[in-house]
Amino acid sequence: VKYGHDEKVPYLSEYLEHLRRLYSLIYRWHRTQGLAEFARRYPQSAENNEEWIQKYREVAANLLPPDTATEEYIVKIAHQVLAGCMEWSYCEQIGPDLTMASAAKQIMHVVRSAEDDKAGADLEEALQRLKNTGPESREPHIVEVTISDHQLGSDLVTVHAQLASRAYGDVAEEIAGTTLGGIVALADCNFEKEMNSTAAPRGVLRFRNAAALHLEVDKTQQSIVELVKAGAVEINSVELGVSQ
Amino acid sequence: MSWTTAVTLTNKRPEDVFCTIPKGLVFENQTVGTTVQNVAASREYKLIIPAGSTMRLTIDVYCINRPFSPPSGQPGKITIFKIDRPFADQDELWAIMGQGV
Asked: Residue A99 in contact with residue A91, Cβ under 8 Å?
């Protein structure tokens, strides 16, 4: 997810500015002190001819000014600080209570948080496309959602239930003071299909709308559902499946 | 083995109300993820609920989630949904619910 490069994201400039402020600390230190300090520690010689040394000289000499650095470039430099040719400066103090490494880690944290936010927004948008009532619900429709690494480590029943409450959130439950259901049936029927499905890759959950689960909104005249909606009848209790 | 669902309801109007419970109307569990089967009415019911009275109905049902455990009298809810095609018996209903991806 290239969050920082999505022009639809309203706070793109704020996000990129945050990254650039952190990057500018790395940039300034390497341009003002880093090259000289590096030359002192690793002077040009036949012995100091390792690949990373050559790479650092090239990277440091060509560091992009902060105001032109892109998200990808800043991430690339942060990687070099944490585990690359700039790692030699890992512990250098580059600001009050800030080391080179902590600036690089902050960059990675900001990027990961933005990616999580974007993934969450994409998920919400996908789930809200699922229509279970109204004219749009008549055609079968399935949305696939990728669940996060964090969610993959959790109980799948719980993760499915959490997402299902959003996927089926357009089914009104409270009508005229009586609770009419629908969300549980949709969620359970969908989960049954997920249990039996071998088509979806690991890390992907599929949510089917009512039509794809062979359910339709009851429109029978004078049905109990209509009477409850009209406030004529109140449901006091339901006991499921008493065996005979 | 056959199953029933008990529904207690009250006519809040001062006149008798004619009421239909369509075949295939779904009754669900109170909460998601119980892995206990939800159920659907196995036939249509037509009844008159007298003005202001409370009735307890016993409705024949089929289970709709084959891999799940059978229901055992737990509290549930009437849903706004019914099965979207005809079925004759429990096996046909399970077959319908198992169709599709």
From this structure: yes
Q: Return the C-alpha torsion angle A38, A40, A41, A47, nearest 10.
A: 100
Tell which residue, A18, A34, A17, A37, has the closest CA to residue A26.
A34
Helices (H), A66-155: 71-83, 100-128, 149-152
Tokens of residue A124, six digits: 């919400």
Please list every residue in chain B whose beta carbon sits closer than 8 Å to the beta carbon of residue A220. Answer: 20, 22, 82
Cβ(A6)–Cβ(A118) below 8 Å: yes
Q: Residue with structure tokens 């119980």?
A: B34
How distant is the Cα of B10 from the closest Cα of chain A, in angstroms?
Answer: 5
Whether A217 has its CB under 8 Å from any CB of chain B: the answer is yes
DSSP secondary structure string for all residues of A7-74: TT-TTHHHHHHHHHHHHHHHHHHIIIIIHHHHHHHS-SSSSS--HHHHHHHHHHHTPPPGGG--HHHH
Summarised one tens digit per residue, pLDDT across range A125-182 is 888 888 888 888 889 999 988 877 666 667 788 888 888 988 898 887 666 566 789 9
Contact A214 B13 (CB under 8 A): no
Q: Which residues on A lie below 8 Å from B50 (Cβ)?
A: none
Q: How many helices (H) and strands (E) does chain A have?
A: 9, 8
Measured at the CA of B13, the angle between CA B9 and CA B14, to 5 degrees, comes to: 125
ipTM comes to 0.95
Beta-bridge partner residues of A95: A98
Residue B100 has what DSSP assignment? -
Residue A211's SS3 state is: helix
Mean pLDDT over residues A207-233, rounded?
94
CB-based contact A148:A116 (threshold 8 Å):
yes
Mean of the per-residue pLDDT values of chain A: 86
Nearest CB among A187, A212, A243 relative to B32 is that of A187
Tell me how far apart the alpha carbons of residues B10 and A15 are, in angstroms, rounded to a whole number.
58
| Triad A39, A43, A44: Cα angle to 5° | 115
